Amino acid sequence: MKKVIAIDGPSGSGKSTICRRLAERIGFEFLDTGALYRAVALHLRQNNLTADSSDAEIQSALSGVSVFFKNGLVFLCNRDVSQAIRTPEAGHYASVFSARKPVRDFLLQIQRDAALHNDIVAEGRDMTSVVFPHAWIKFYLDASEESRAQRRYLQLKEKGMSVTMQEALKDVRERDLRDSRRDIAPLKRAEDAIYIDTTLMSLEEVTAAILKAVLEG
Predict the structure, then answer these.
(1) 147-155: long-range contacts at Cβ-Cβ below 8 A with a sequence spacing of 24 or more?
(2) Per residue in 74-110, is it b (16+ CB within 10 Å) or e — as a string?
(3) Based on the number of CB atoms within 10 Å of its own CB, is 139 exposed (0-12), middle (13-18) or buried (19 or more)?
(4) pLDDT digits 0-9 by tens, 158-187
(5) Which DSSP string corresponds to 64-91?
(6) Which residue, of 53, 72, 76, 129, has the fewest CB within 10 Å?
(7) Does CATH place domain 4-208 in 3.40.190.10?
(8) What is the Cα–Cα distance from 119 to 53, expressed in whole angstroms?
(9) Closest C-alpha among 78, 103, 90 to residue 38
(10) pTM: predicted TM-score of the whole model, two decimal places
(11) Dihedrals φ, ψ of 215, to 5°?
(12) What is the C-alpha separation between 80 and 35, in angstroms, rounded?
């Protein structure tokens, strides 16, 4: 396995944007695990599965399914779903289905395989604890609930989506509960992960702090 910089944290802590910037700066590949979960959620919803579906039904629906990145795009069964997975609904169901064992089992090896031939920056909820427990360097990004909701709100507004600040805050709170309380691979800070509170930091400041730690490592 090549070098892995693993970064975990709750929704809205800035992981995806920071990881993209970091990967570009140091010449690593960026593993957007959130996109993988969104693609799987999209597939399950297209097959009429819900939070009440059984593990057997989910496992059956994922049989023979392929999810992968190519040239910065996300493909589901050889179909570009890069835009389709960026809706609030896709994000909601990605969080819902990520708590299910068949989904996590399905994506585990796909994520690990990304580091077989490339140095990567991997972001998610369980990168440091489950997927890459022996990562080269680990980080845990955090921020206040209000700050994360504000970031989520602005992100959706920039995409032209109709959303209120109250809805963004509700979404963040619900994701936090699902991510931290699920039985399988709950969101938690690994003991050896470097903690960074991004609440009062700009993207550039967070990137600089991580780069400093990487270079010192």
Answers:
(1) 147/12, 147/198, 147/199, 148/10, 148/11, 148/12, 148/13, 148/172, 149/12, 151/12, 151/14, 152/11, 152/12
(2) bbbeeeebeebbbebebbbbbbbbbbbebbbebbeeb
(3) buried
(4) 878 888 999 999 989 988 888 888 888 888
(5) T--EEEETTEEEETTEE-TTGGGSHHHH
(6) 72
(7) no
(8) 37
(9) 90
(10) 0.86
(11) -65, -35
(12) 12
Q: What are the C-alpha distances in Å from 55 to residues 60, 84, 119, 130, 202?
A: 8, 24, 33, 20, 41
CA distances from 83 to 74, 104, 213 (A): 9, 23, 33
Token pair of 75, please? 């493909």
CB atoms within 10 A of CB 175: 23
pLDDT one-digit tens code per residue, 44-55: 999 999 999 999
CA distance 20 to 31: 9
Instruction: Name the pLDDT band for 191 (thresholds 50, 70, 90).
Output: very high
Tokens 């392929």, residue located: 66
Domain boundaries, the chain: 4-208
**Beta strand pairing call for 4-8 and 120-124:** parallel
Residue matched to tokens 């931290």: 180
Query: From CA 80, how far away is CA 20, in angstroms rounded?
Result: 20
